[in-house]
Amino acid sequence: MAVSGSKDFELNVAEYIEEAFERCGLELRTGYDARTARRSLNLLFADWANRGLNRWTINQVTQTVADGIAEYPVGTITLSVSDSDSFTIAETITGGSSTATASLITKPDSTSMTITVPSGTFTSGETITGSSSSATTTTTSTASLEDTQSTVDILSGVLRRSGSDVAMPRISRDDYLNIATKSTSGRPTQFYVDRLITPTVKVWPTPENSTDQFIYDRLVRIDDADASVNTVEVPFRFYPCLAAGLAYYLALKRAPERVQLLKALYEEEFLRAAEEDRDKVNLTLVPTYSSLSAVS
């Protein structure tokens, strides 16, 4: 017999739920059954993020730095305004009624600006004023933090200047805290990720211009399973792991007698998926000059 010729098999949320219920020896019967299963599915995605199993959601962010600004949102926070032409990069903007403040990072076009994580909340329709330019404009929407808050972590970063990229190592909280003069100006050479609910990245030294670009790969959340008709943001090779994980989560609530069996199957599927979801490159060992000197 001829093969199908198709490679588009994909389960939606409802089908994953049906599969999970069947593995638990149950049937999906009520609207609440579907709702509690979707909740378990979203919790499973959070578990995957903790385990680092969503590398297919990595995206690359190019952040143009601003002179004198050391802290940036991990992602983009855009404030829509009626006009941004008269404002100055790196100045502080203040909301007239909300008194919220933020620093201006870039002006993508004449009616929007990207800002640092605001202190307070800008409101739509209020007047904002620049600290050094004294320019004013009116906001046309509130600034959304969703893109930044969807960040799980930063994996690596480089600084680009005049078309050349230089690796920037990541440092720990303690290392950043122990930097004696954080206001030192120069070409940024390292970064620290402050993993808050709205995460930020701090570069050091503080940028000396508004043209260098900090380019980094970030891991973001998997899209939520909001409705049963939604498809799930996972590649084909992770379908078995997802079905096994959801069955285990449902067994904790509905089929306790199958918990151990389904947990073992989930961990096996997870281990197989995690082993596959990695960079497959040759291992290269390079001795340091100090080790060579010690041998000689």
Instruction: Give the strand content.
Output: 25-35%
Could you give a short account of the major beta sheet?
6 strands, antiparallel
Number of helices: 7
Order of strands, main sheet, comes to 3-6-5-4-7-8
Number of domains: 3
- What structural category do the secondary elements indicate? alpha+beta
**Which H/E pattern describes the elements?**
HHEEEEEEEEHEEHEEEEEHHH
The total beta strand count reads 15
What is the distance, rounded to the nearest whole angstrom, between the alpha carbons of the first and last residues? 69 Å
Low-confidence runs:
none
Radius of gyration: 24 Å
Write down the overall mean pLDDT: 94
Specify the overall morphology.
Answer: globular
Report the helical percentage.
25-40%
Structure notes:
With 296 residues, the protein is α+β, with helices and mostly antiparallel strands. The chain has three domains: 13-54 and 222-275, no CATH class; 78-143, no CATH class; 151-217, no CATH class. Helix content is 28%, strand content 25%. It contains seven helices and 15 strands. The protein has helices at residues 13-23, 31-51, 146-149, 173-177, 239-254, 259-276, 289-295; strands at residues 58-64, 71-73, 78-80, 92-95, 101-109, 112-115, 127-130, 136-138, 151-161, 164-168, 185-186, 190-194, 200-204, 206-207, 213-220. Strands 3-6-5-4-7-8 form a six-stranded antiparallel β-sheet, with no helix packed on it.
What structural keywords apply?
296 residues; single chain; 6-stranded antiparallel beta sheet; globular; 4-stranded antiparallel beta sheet; 3 domains; 28% helix; 7 helices; 15 strands
